[in-house]
Design a protein that fits this description.
Elements (H helix, E strand, L loop, with lengths): L1 H29 L14 H11 L3 H5 L9
């Protein structure tokens, strides 16, 4: 049991760090604050935030000149 706990917690922390880092990169590219990625660790909140970010306007799209007007 002790060996399991010695392996489980470090693996869980590494996976959570990767999860937060990936979401921070996505949010930065979308133009939102990277601090929102910490809220992705909270159960239930992560599902709501995914829906919010999917259907809100992304600030990065408003400032980008490379996006054709057809997508606005």
């Amino acid at each position: 049991m002790t060996l399991f706990l010695l392996v489980f917690w470090p693996v869980l922390i590494v996976l959570a760090a990767i999860y937060v880092w990936l979401h921070a990169r996505i949010l930065r590219r979308a133009g939102h604050s990277r601090l929102w990625s910490l809220a992705m660790l909270l159960p239930g909140v992560n599902v709501v935030l995914i829906w919010v970010f999917a259907f809100t306007d992304w600030p990065a799209l408003k400032t980008s000149k490379a996006i054709p007007e057809i997508f606005e």
